[in-house]
Amino acid sequence: MRSLQGLKVTVWRAYSTAKSAPVIAAKHPFKVQLKSGKLYPWCSCGHSKKQPFCDGSHRKAAPDLAPLRFTLTEDKEAWLCGCKQTKTPPYCDGTHKQSYVQECTQEPNQ
């Protein structure tokens, strides 16, 4: 368990020796309302059609990547990363503003 912005957050993640790199799903973050106690699967591969959350697309498009599953201890409005390049997953850290993200023409393989 880790503390983020004064909230206790529990994160579950399937670790693997990832060979695939995530694709940029969006060049902006997603504003979401999160409920305490609910398990959320944040898409880490960029292929989901239900961004920023996982729809299982990674199983076919990037089988060595898994969603980051997390839950909060209290309700919260948050900005979740859409570019999949954040250093603070699942939260946006502003990386989408970098030129290498904004100039990218890569599209998710869906």
UniProtKB/TrEMBL annotation:
Gene Ontology terms, MF aspect: 2 iron, 2 sulfur cluster binding; metal ion binding
Give me the segments passing through the membrane. none
Cellular compartments per GO CC: mitochondrion
Keyword annotations? 2Fe-2S, Iron, Iron-sulfur, Metal-binding
Q: Name one Pfam family in it.
A: zf-CDGSH
Q: Which domain of life is it from?
A: Eukaryota
Q: Which cofactor does the UniProt annotation name?
A: [2Fe-2S] cluster
What Gene3D superfamilies has UniProt attached to this entry? Answer: CDGSH iron-sulfur domain, mitoNEET-type
Residue ranges annotated as coiled coil are: none
- Ranges for domain Iron-binding zinc finger CDGSH type come to 27-64, 65-102
Question: What name goes with this protein?
Answer: Iron-binding zinc finger CDGSH type domain-containing protein
Q: What is the native source organism of this protein? A: Eleutherodactylus coqui
